Amino acid sequence: MMVKFQLLGKSCELHDDPNIIRTISKKIDKKDIVIFVSLNGKTEELVEAARNCQANGVSTLLLTANQNSPLYDLCEISLVGFKSEISYFPEYEVRSRLPIQVMARIILDAYAIRTKEKFS
Fold first, then answer.
1. How remote is the C-alpha of 58 from its chain's centroid?
2. CA dihedral sign, ordered 26, 28, 30, 33
3. What is the CATH number of the domain that holds 33?
């Protein structure tokens, strides 16, 4: 997603380090938007970052497979993809991310189409 947004002329950053996420989330400007991607919606540093965004009036979008999660409740817009109840590795969170990837692709394609129409 990051590279595609950059190709469309948007300044975009990707952070996956918990300490960086916590720190950066306190400094994000109100004119920006944060897109959270979390299969279970319970990742502690993402929940903390969403609280920071909410406190600072930063818009948030969530791509997840769990509508019963803290992130779902904290984000302005939450898109929920399917998650199978069956896991072949129950002790790990290794379910398919395909529904989230499809949602991300739809968002990127829709944005690209609208951006192209706007400047054509």
1. 13
2. negative
3. 3.40.50.10490
